[in-house]
UniProtKB/TrEMBL annotation:
Pfam families: Reeler. One of its GO terms (cellular component) is extracellular region. It comes from Clastoptera arizonana. Gene3D superfamilies: Reeler domain. Residues 1-32 form the signal peptide. Keywords: Antibiotic, Antimicrobial, Immunity, Innate immunity, Secreted, Signal. One of its GO terms (biological process) is innate immune response. Its main location: secreted. This is Reelin domain-containing protein. PROSITE patterns: REELIN (PS51019). It is found in: Secreted. The lineage of its organism: Eukaryota, Metazoa, Ecdysozoa, Arthropoda, Hexapoda. Residues 27-178 form the Reelin domain. Belongs to the insect defense protein family.
Length: 178
């Protein structure tokens, strides 16, 4: 039984390449999204975590709005934080919406190490998302209403504890601008 050395080395190199390729592919799948929600999430607010189902259990995070009855042109601060010390935030996606429709206003990101804005259909900087999967105790976001806005809106919030555990489009109390 004779083995062609050239063919043998070629097959070994191909096998090594295939193993490295498969490891790289698996690591991409395991890591998930590290730089925020994809543009496809603009409508549904679903993070698209490899077909994982969302949680329907009570949200273990507080969604706090600093002023439930602001005046025209007042900015709002939204705070997301765990209800217990174990509840950390790995990812988030936030929009302000009027009647469950398209996002309104824009976010003014104060800490670019935690959040960034994306432009979803209908506006600019109208959605805030995480910039990395590092666990966060709390997220603070500043929202700027459209100029002269009068009406009511709510924040729609998706929060992820990890790649497999997330809650989609949970809402804050309604905020009225007079």
């Amino acid at each position: 039984f004779k083995i062609n050395l050239t063919c043998y080395l070629f097959v070994q190199k191909m096998w090594t390449f295939l193993q490295i390729f498969c490891l790289a592919l698996i690591s991409c799948v395991v890591k998930g999204r590290q730089d925020g929600a994809p543009m496809e999430a603009c409508l549904t607010l679903h993070p698209g975590h490899s077909g994982q189902p969302q949680q329907y259990t009570p949200l273990p995070f507080d969604l706090l709005v600093d002023n439930p009855e602001p005046e025209v042109d007042d900015k709002l601060k939204l705070t997301i934080r765990g209800k217990s010390p174990e509840d950390k935030i790995a990812g988030f996606l936030v929009q302000a919406r009027e009647k469950c429709e398209t996002p309104i206003g824009k976010f003014d990101v104060q800490n670019s190490k935690i959040a960034k804005t994306i432009d979803c259909p209908g506006g600019v900087e109208n959605t805030a998302t995480h910039v990395n999967p590092n666990l966060k105790d709390e997220v603070n976001l500043t929202w700027v209403p459209p100029s002269g806005y009068k009406g009511h809106m709510s924040f729609f919030v998706t929060v992820a504890k990890d790649k497999d555990t997330f809650w989609v489009a949970r809402t804050t109390e309604t905020v009225w601008y007079y």
